[in-house]
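About this split. The held-out portion is used to measure sequence recovery: a designer receives only the structure tokens and must propose an amino acid at every position. Recovery is the fraction of positions where the proposal matches the reference. Here is one held-out target exactly as it appears in the evaluation file.
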């Protein structure tokens, strides 16, 4: 389960950033995660929660914003692969195979290339700082 190693890296970065800003508590962490990362957001959240136990991030809300793959074509089209382009959901295909099948440019029908959808970025960390009196 590679989600655990990813959660470890996220946890370490969150704690380092929180400490650098004098945090007494991490309230929430928001990630932007591309659909092509092959990472399960529920498992990632579970692993982060387990790692956060006993730390200033214990109980922090873990928010994952999914980013669809984006395409670029030689005809000049740029855009994202939406649900309509991704194919039928009742087929027993992985999400990646659905996107690979949908890589035709919606403007001209030629083969397009993937330009996004593999991101995994810590978008924001909401912290509480100690009050100085």
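Reference sequence for scoring:
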């Amino acid at each position: 389960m590679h989600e655990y190693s990813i959660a470890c890296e996220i946890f370490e970065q969150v704690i380092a950033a929180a400490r650098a800003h004098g945090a007494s508590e991490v309230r929430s962490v928001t990630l932007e995660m591309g659909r092509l990362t092959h990472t399960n957001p529920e498992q990632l959240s579970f692993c982060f929660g387990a790692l956060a136990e006993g730390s200033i991030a214990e109980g922090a809300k873990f928010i994952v914003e999914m980013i669809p793959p984006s395409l670029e074509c030689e005809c000049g089209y740029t855009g994202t692969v939406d649900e309509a382009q991704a194919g039928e959901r009742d087929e027993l295909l992985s999400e990646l195979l659905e996107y690979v099948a949908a890589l035709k440019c919606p403007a001209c029908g030629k083969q397009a290339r993937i330009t996004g959808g593999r991101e995994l970025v810590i978008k924001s960390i909401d912290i509480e700082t100690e009050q100085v009196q």
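Annotator remark: The longest strand covers residues 23-34.
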